[in-house]
Amino acid sequence: MGPALCLLSAACFGALPIFGKFAYAAGVTPATLLLVRFALAAAILGALLLLRPGLRRTADGPVRLTPGLVLTGLGLGAVGYATQAGLYFAALRRMDASPLSLILYTYPLLVTVAAVLLRRDRLTRARAAALTAASAGTLLVLLGTGGADFDPLGAVLGFGAAATYTGYILVADTVVHRLPPVLLSALVMAGAAVTLTGHALITGGPGPGAGPRAWLWLACIAVVSTVAATLTFFAGLRRTGPSTAAILSTFEPVVTTALAALTLHESLTPVQLAGGLLVLASAAVLQLRRTAAVPVAAPVAPPGHRDGAAPAPQPATQV
């Protein structure tokens, strides 16, 4: 069941940009999408914590919530996650879902570089080779269109989302072992919802009212690609361990690419496909290398990237 749950989580996360494209087509603005997504996810996770008190406990017993822990959890959502999600969905308006998912998937490599610079990890020959291959793969993804459909601003926004997510992961490493995952996820979602509510009030509201079709896609984003994706990842993580869960999560951009081809009639060129394979293979190699040698203080990665959710305790980036 463990690997199946991890793959199911990756599939739920992989559907996120597809739901986003359909929501945009139904007239949803990025501000509305983000506000509804995080507010609804926070409400669902909060209700789950009320109904299942055991989710508020760690393996060592009840959690002692301090103001510092609560503020850090809320801050991760209010600053890091809200910014990352905003950049991601802004990029999604300008470019296809398939190449954007591969651009975002550079974040495990950025985390590795940051961990080396911060002396949390060591740069081995294998990691250097993986980083080089991933950089070449990213370049192929960007240039594979031949310039016809390339949107420079969309690519910059996508890389901005990956870089912001990298910082979010490194900060989350300071609290991820001190709070239960569902509780931390709820705090992150609530923090993001507060920021986006404030943004909506300042800018005059989240946009025009959404119709039934728009609400269908918004519900799919919040329930399927946020709450269900997060909970199935946690369940799979407990059964498989962090490294296996991280490697299985590389299935996510594969799902995005396949769904984009089926529903949005998008397609990657052969050059982009080769670049994407390089990026995903490099991410998997980095995880495999970490399995063999435990780093000094490796960063953890949240399940959501993808702009997913709160951090899951693990010694390697979850991709």
Q: Brief description of this entry?
A:
With 319 residues, the chain is mostly helical. Helices cover 71% and strands 1% of the residues.
Oligomeric status: single chain
- What is the strand arrangement across the widest sheet? 1-2
Which term fits the overall shape?
globular
Q: In the residues, how many domains can be counted? A: 1
What's the N-to-C terminus distance?
19 Å
Helix content: over 70%
**Biggest sheet record:** 2 strands, antiparallel
Strand content: under 5%
The assigned structural class equals mainly alpha
Radius of gyration, in Å, reads 18 Å
Please tally the helical runs, counting DSSP H or I stretches of 4 or more residues. 13
Q: What is the tally of beta strands?
A: 2
Order of helices and strands: HHHEEHHHHHHHHHH
Average of the residue pLDDT scores = 80
| Poorly predicted ranges | 294-305, 307-319
Membrane topology: Multi-pass membrane protein
Subcellular location: Cell membrane
Family: Belongs to the EamA transporter family.
Main location: membrane
What does this structure look like?
Keywords: Cell membrane, Membrane, Transmembrane, Transmembrane helix. The chain crosses the membrane at residues 35-55, 67-91, 97-118, 130-147, 153-171, 183-202, 214-237. It is found in: Cell membrane. There is one protein chain. The protein has 319 residues and is mostly helical. It has one domain (2-292). It is built from 13 helices and 2 strands; from the N terminus they run αααββαααααααααα. A two-stranded antiparallel sheet has the order 1-2. A hairpin with a 2-residue loop joins strand 1 (57-58) and strand 2 (61-62). Helix 2 (16-25) packs antiparallel against helix 10, helix 4 (67-92) runs antiparallel to helix 8 (152-172) and helix 6 crosses helix 8 (152-172). The radius of gyration is 18 Å and the shape is globular. Residues 294-305 and 307-319 have low confidence and may be disordered.
